[in-house]
Write a structure and sequence with these properties.
The chain has 160 residues and is an all-alpha fold. It is 77% helix and 0% strand. It has helices at 2-34, 38-78, 97-113, 118-131, 134-151. The longest helix has 41 residues, at 38-78.
């Protein structure tokens, strides 16, 4: 069921966004071209600029998601995902703070031994995420993606 529903929902969402962006561009252009008032033309320019920013932000989020899927698949294929099976969890499913700290310390030691390996950067990003430090997790994941792309000839990655 998921093999059908997920792509369908993603396709419908992308179509909806394309229609919304197209309508906003049309609205902005019609405000610029059909009004003799400067304020109305300025509003049209603003709508077009905000639509462009929204389209860029949407693309940046999607590109990031595709990069994360690609590197997560590579990590899973190499069997380097973090083993969380023995760690204590909260009722919500998140790791207990002490368990996340222990995980982070062990993964951090791996990273310090090999900071230029995408695998240790990936594992560090996941450890930061489990420890609740999203900012550092994103930074480490960016480094992992960059190093993975540099290590894999012929693989095209998104430029940052």
């Amino acid at each position: 069921m998921d093999r059908i529903m997920k792509p369908l929902v993603m396709t419908l969402t992308a179509l909806g966004l394309a229609v919304a962006f197209g309508y906003l561009l049309f609205l902005g252009w019609s405000m610029i071209s059909s009004s003799e008032y400067v304020a109305m033309r300025g509003l049209g320019v603003g709508i077009i600029l905000l639509t462009a920013v929204g389209a860029w932000a949407t693309w940046a989020i999607l590109r990031n998601g595709f990069e994360l899927q690609r590197i997560s698949a590579a990590a899973a294929a190499e069997g380097i995902e973090l083993d969380l099976s023995e760690l204590e969890r909260r009722p919500s499913g998140r790791l207990q703070p002490e368990a996340a700290e222990m995980l982070f310390e062990s993964v951090s030691a791996e990273y310090l031994a090999s900071p230029e390996d995408w695998r240790t950067n990936y594992r560090l990003a996941r450890a930061y995420d489990h420890a609740g430090d999203r900012g550092r997790a994103r930074e480490a994941m960016r480094d992992a993606v960059r190093l993975h792309d540099a290590a894999a000839p012929g693989v095209t990655g998104g430029a940052r």
